[in-house]
Design brief:
Elements (H helix, E strand, L loop, with lengths): L4 H8 L9 E3 L5 E3 L9 E2 L2 E2 L3 H22 L1
Antiparallel strand pairs: 1-2, 3-4
Length: about 70
């Protein structure tokens, strides 16, 4: 049997990635299935991530890094 380019491409046509499946929670925010929402921090109606605390923690790190950068200059 010949192994042609058309045969290879025909086989590879089924290798494409599937679109990610999205869900909509009670507050109307879309998120990936079986994962907590990164915006609200909820999963299946329960609060599992404290998003506000994470944002505050990141801001504190940025502020500290900004202060250190100014001292280096």
């Amino acid at each position: 049997m010949r192994h042609t380019r058309a045969h290879t491409k025909n086989r590879r046509s089924h290798h494409k990635m599937a679109e990610p499946t999205l869900s909509v929670n009670e507050s109307g925010v879309t998120h990936l299935r079986h994962r907590a929402s990164s915006i609200t921090g909820t999963y299946r109606g329960r609060q599992v991530i404290d998003v506000e605390a994470q944002i505050a923690q990141k801001e504190a790190k940025r502020k500290k890094a900004g202060i250190e950068e100014k001292e280096d200059k």
